[in-house]
Amino acid sequence: MDIQAWTFLIVGITFALYIGVAIWSRVGSTRDFYVAGGGVSPLANGMATAADWMSAASFISMAGLISFMGYDGAQYLMGWTGGYVLLALLLAPYLRKFGKFTVPDFIGERYYSQTARLVAVVCALFVSFTYVVGQMKGVGIAFSRFLEVDLATGVIIGVGIVFIYAVLGGMKGITYTQVVQYCVLIFAFLVPAIFISILLVDNPVPQVGFGGKTAENIYLLDKLNQLHGELGFAEYTSGVKPKIDVFFITAALMLGTAGLPHVIVRFFTVPKVKDARISAGYALFFIAILYTTAPAVAAFARTNLLETVNNREISDLPPWFDNWQTTGLLRFEDKNGDGRVQYYNDLNQEFSETAENNGWSGNELSVDNDIMVLANPEIAGLPSWVIALVVAGGLAAALSTAAGLLLVISTSISHDLLKNNLMPNISEKGELRAARIAIAFAVIIAGWAGINPPGFVAQVVALAFGLAASSFFPAIVMGIFYKGMNKQGAIAGMITGILFTSVYIWYFKPALGGPGHPEDYWFGISPEGIGTLGMIINFAVALTVRAFTSAPPHEVRELTESIRYPSMDKKEESYSEFH
User: For residue range 294-330, what is the model confidence (pLDDT) as tens digits?
Assistant: First the structure.
């Protein structure tokens, strides 16, 4: 069978499984819709959390970014893995103990204010929409290659699929669907990595093969550095980004993780606080499998691309080249008319002079970072079924996180906004209907934005993490560890933090139409890292306002104290009732 036939078969089987699970676990109550009834096992929740966490940014885009950025791409690995550890150990058990299954719910209760809840709802919607835009682009990329259509058509098809199983199953359906999706995505990520590791360095373990020697008896990374030098790029293992930006991006990804609503809610789907801790451990293990493999995949993909395409005759280009040109994510222009592909760094002025002497007229190849993982098996000449498997894995990663984010959006609107603010007497049936309608609107808007995102998938997701870091992280941390923080300080901090970060992102992100230029970044901090500064401003504003306003009520201070020092009675331990 050819690639398309294999892709139809494998993607068809996996989608049948997802939709079947969604129908099997169809919900009838808001408790099931929001937190899966609180009855998911720690192992299943760990797998679902890993799938929820490892979005299109992790599966499709992260290795692609590293393959082009080299050493500088390590900030994404460090930030996202470190962030999950921070969330699992520092915040999740306390939030689970508090018994509120959404961030706005926690903030509204802890800061004894409907205004605080409303601000948190707006922040949650802002963060989740930004995050889901990246997922919809990932879905579009996978579908566009799978069906050989353009990106916009791929996104529209993905919108329909996400809508079906997110609306049907709620959190219960999404949880068990994500268990299946984790199995699909991790298998799809590892199989080609193992294949290519054997081909390039004769080692079946990618994490070890990454540092191995090629057939020419040269270390893979040394060979990659040499290829980069020959084409005018910076060495793969050297960093060129300002250290302050690397630090701020890493911190924004870590701290933003701790404020991500769709990950936090995962700790409410298990019966007990102890189970939440165990499932966090499982999730970290499942996440580590992919994250330790990603640098190897990035190096393999970059090496294969440079060796396969550069200076090759157009008539001799492999079929995958034409397949990806159809999507519009890979573009070739024969600028000097010599019938060959010249791929080099024409921004390097010193190298450009050498290139001009060779008769070259500028870089002729444009490659979207986000295609590297999906194109990697085709570039390496792997069997058709492996290529199809990677497409299925990319779809699983993007769809699993998109569904979790859409649930957060629907919950914020139906539960936090309507039930707890505008329509306190709404029936359970009416609340469930409102949640499903909210998902429908959210998926359509996210799909529209996914067709024209403000960057690569991982960059868009990084922006969402920055927004979460600048808005939620200080409010959650001080809500747990500083019993003296009051509602005035928390509200002022959240508003200031997210406004500052949003305006900075808009101003310096060309895709959003802002007037700023990268050379004018404050202190050299890019939009992907500005959330860290926004978080610092949030803390400063919140503490300053707190100093000039009244302390929180005594019962709130006692409640905060009880979160960190829980009693050991049965009722306290099994406090999973949703309010």
Answer: 999 999 999 999 988 888 888 888 888 888 888 888 8
Put simply, whether the predicted model's pTM sits higher than 0.85 gets the answer no
Cβ pair 126, 467 in contact under 8 A:
yes
Residue 151 host element (H or E) = helix 151-201
Three-state secondary-structure class, residue 341: coil
Query: What distance, in Å, lies between the first and last C-alpha atoms of the chain?
Result: 53
pLDDT tens string 240-255? 888 899 999 999 989 9
Select from 369, 505, 266, 408 the least CA-distant residue to 57.
369
**CA distances, 249 to each of 72, 428, 574 (Å):** 11, 42, 38
Helix-, strand-, coil-residue percentages of the chain, each rounded to 5: 75, 0, 25
Alpha carbon 564 to chain centroid, angstroms: 30
Q: What is the mean pLDDT of residues 412-428?
A: 76
Q: What distance in Å separates the CA atoms of residue 464 and residue 322, rounded to the nearest whole number?
A: 33
The two tokens of residue 360 are 């070259």
pLDDT recorded at residue 470: 94
CA dist 97 and 262 (Å) reads 17
The DSSP line for 239-285 is --S-HHHHHHHHHHHHHHHTT-HHHHGGGGSSSSHHHHHHHHHHHHH
**Which region among 9-13, 144-148, 515-519, 549-553 has the lowest average model confidence (pLDDT)?**
144-148
Q: Is 579 exposed, middle or buried (0-12, 13-18, 19+ CB in 10 A)?
A: exposed
Q: Rounded to whole angstroms, how far apart are CA atoms 359 and 355?
A: 7
Helix (H) or strand (E) run with residue 332 in it: strand 330-332
User: Residue 331 pairs with which residues in a beta bridge?
Assistant: 366
Q: Which CATH architecture has domain 3-306+374-569?
A: Up-down Bundle (1.20)
60: DSSP letter: I
Residue-range domain boundaries for the chain: 3-306+374-569
**3-class SS of residue 40:** coil
| Buried b or exposed e, range 332-349, using 16+ CB within 10 angstroms | beeeeebebbbbbebeee
Gap between the Cα atoms of 472 and 71, Å rounded: 30
Q: What is the pLDDT of residue 469?
A: 92
**Cα–Cα distance between 160 and 163 in angstroms, integer?**
5
